[in-house]
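Sat 14:20. Reprocessing the chain from the morning session after the first attempt stalled halfway. Input below, unchanged.
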Amino acid sequence: MLPLLRLLQDGRFHSGEALGAALGISRAAVWKQLRSLEAELGLPVYKVRGRGYRLASPLRLLDERKLSEEAWPVSVLHSVDSTNSEALRRLEAAQSVPFSVLAERQTAGRGRRGRTWISPFAENLYYSLVLRVEGGMRQLEGLSLVVGLALVRAIRGMGVEGVGLKWPNDLLVDGRKIAGILLELSGDPADVCHVVIGIGVNVNMMPGQASTIDQPWTSMRAVLGCGVDRNELVSGLNKQLMGYLSLHQQRGFSALLEEWQGCHLWQGRQVRLTAGAQEIVGVVLGVDVTGALRLLVDGVERHFSGGELSLRLSDDS
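Finished this time. Tokens:
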């Protein structure tokens, strides 16, 4: 099915005869694969008598060979439950680190706090990077925030100037989510472990394609008004990650604290922080050297960290 998709990805009409000749299969087999594209991947195929078949819109698949030449080894999967889950499975199978896993589609994409990450085929970026961490928890302090900085720089580099950070792991444009980060650990965090850095970016998905998302969202395409080459985005992201992760390893999060706060969209804003059944109202002062959120609560500065916290603007309905 993938060879057929590569022929159709230009968005132009191709006759059944020409497709069959290129693939070395019958026209009936071509028709069967076209039906699978629609049924399994959700890709609409237009059929016009006398002209042939084309996708509803052009797409560009991720280029594993090119991306592997630029940074750490890359595997691009046609479909997977979750790139983070696949990365963890590969760790258990003793794959050499570092490596990254990308997918054209996720069938069970995961976000923070157990949320589902909507992952249509060849529209967005589903990316996981696996790194070895030595030296205990100190090496993990502020790591997700550093990844957020790298992602902001990569997305801005593609022309989305208004993108910024929301503590701890979200990227927003005009109050709408455009990307998120999910870190998962494997091994002993007190000694030697591995961290899986999961990144999801809404790249070319447009409003109406994902009505089940339960929060305001946008995409790079919606902001820019044109399609985005995901290969170019991955290349830029890899470059930014290599630089920021190296700086974090050498000097710690404190070296990047001011830069992170400069990209934080909710600096000085009044927010509601939810931790289980508890709700705390305060004003965002920034973050500390460990990446914890600093809030002014009833005139007293308090610090908060943890994966189960939820932050909203105090006037957010």
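DSSP finds nine helices and 14 strands in the chain.
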